[in-house]
Design brief:
Low-confidence stretches: none
Radius of gyration: 22 Å
Number of domains: 2
Number of strands: 17
Helix content: 25-40%
Mean pLDDT: 95
CATH class of the largest domain: Alpha Beta
Bound molecules: pyridoxal-5'-phosphate
Distance between the termini: 45 Å
Largest sheet: 7 strands, mixed
């Protein structure tokens, strides 16, 4: 990273220069990367940290007493400590894993499966990613529990009255996304978790799209479980974590069995390690999580409040440009939004639009965004989605808008 970031006056062009990939050309045009909700780009410091690990320190963790083994273990555990500090939780409550999908499955199989029974319900919101739907369906099938859905309003806001009404005594667990990956809606998870807690409902918050964009204080949110993924917050793919309350981790059986997660194994029984190691069977993504530690250092140096402010500015500009385009409809206009904008253009299929934008160097995602129930709600098969990060620029927003104008003319 540009080591001397002055948090009070950030030079966003210098920040952008920390991301080597953003200098690329695509189809002969400078790349405009508007797909950060899918995966984020990585600063040089993260890439170099992973490279340095494999060049100089590569060894397995928590096993060997030799120097490299200690270096690897220390760096891996230091990454856990950094990550815990970043989201304000205790490091022993942070299970490192491959990302949100894995994290939610740990809760599903280790917490929900042994507890739920016929007559119980799992409450989800309309705007959940498949990662916060399908594990619950699998649990429901095996336990006889049912799935209930809390609806949203047309603008993509979670209907809180409906949500609280749906928190009936049969509901044992609520799954809610912190920020929608399709609509950009920021849900008031602190208030929602407080209401759930009053009614004895455990809460699982999907933080995948929150951590890259906002200051997240998990302790203040007051949930039972918080899942997130590292690759959307400048870290390597295959990284992330599950945070869970200490009492849950102590009571939950392990999700996977194997090495690293045990204290002693005999053929007549095994004594499991303490949390979080009890949930980290096998050799983990060591280099990846050390890289994620570097991503946390990077974001910390920028300051998440600065990231939030920068992205709010970019979002305002993006909305301004898009609302000027005739025939373009934004899907998801909630008041509190992250810089994620889904849209449709009259007469153009989302995939065609994304393909034609790609020819102009603009990368947006098209499709259902792993949110079929939300697509059903809006009566569409797919949308285009522009998702920004702090490393994007106002010039890119203008290039993007001009590219859409060009596509509209082409398709007219
Ligand atoms: N939840 C949300 C809101 C997401 O946007 C994503 C990824 O797109 C996921 C869950 C799944 O994350 P991962 O594939 O990293 O496990």
């Amino acid at each position: 990273m540009s080591a001397q970031i002055d948090k009070a006056r950030i030079d966003w062009n210098a920040v952008r220069a920390d991301f080597p990939l953003l200098t690329r050309e695509v189809n002969g045009k400078p790349l405009v990367y508007f797909d950060s909700a899918n995966t984020g780009q990585k600063p040089a410091s993260v890439i170099e940290t992973v490279d340095d690990f494999y060049r100089r320190h590569n060894a397995n963790v928590s096993r060997a007493v030799h120097t490299l083994g200690s270096e690897a273990t220390d760096a891996y555990e230091a990454a856990r400590t950094k990550l815990a500090g970043f989201v304000n939780v205790h490091r022993d409550e942070l299970v490192l894993c491959s990302g949100t999908t894995f994290a939610i499955n740990v809760v599903a199989y280790s917490w929900a499966l042994p507890r739920l029974k016929p007559g119980d319900a799992i409450l989800l919101t309309r705007m959940e990613h498949h990662a916060n739907i399908v594990p619950w369906q699998l649990v429901a099938e095996r336990t006889g529990a049912t799935i209930k859905v809390a609806e949203i309003t047309r603008d993509g806001t979670l209907d809180l009255d409906a949500l609280y009404k749906a928190m009936t005594p049969d509901v044992k667990l609520l799954g809610v996304t912190h920020v929608s990956n399709v609509l950009g809606t920021i849900n008031p998870v602190r208030e929602i978790c407080r209401e759930a807690r009053k009614r004895g409902i455990a809460t699982v918050v999907d933080g995948s799209q929150a951590l890259p964009h906002r200051c997240v204080d998990i302790t203040a949110i007051g949930c039972d479980f918080y899942a997130f993924t590292g690759h959307k917050m400048c870290g390597p793919t295959g990284t992330g974590a599950l945070w869970a309350r200490k009492e849950h981790l102590a009571a939950m059986p392990p999700f996977l069995g194997g090495g690293e997660m045990i204290k002693e194994v005999r053929f007549d029984g095994t004594v499991f390690n303490d949390a979080p190691h009890k949930f980290e069977a096998g050799t983990p993504n060591i280099a990846g999580h050390i890289g994620l530690g570097a991503a946390v250092d990077y974001l910390d140096a920028l300051g998440m409040a600065n990231v939030e402010a920068r992205e709010a500015e970019l979002l305002a500009h993006l909305n301004e440009e898009l609302t000027r385009i005739e025939g373009l409809r934004i899907v998801g206009t909630a008041r509190d939004k992250a810089a994620v904008v889904s849209f449709l253009v009259e007469g153009a299929h989302a995939h065609d639009l994304a393909t034609l934008l790609d020819l102009q160097g603009v990368a947006v995602r098209s499709g259902h965004h792993c949110a079929h129930p939300l697509m059903h709600f809006y009566g569409v098969a797919a949308t285009c989605r522009a998702s920004l990060a702090f490393y994007n620029t106002h010039d890119e927003i203008e290039t993007f808008a001009a590219a859409i104008h060009k596509v509209r003319k082409l398709l007219a």
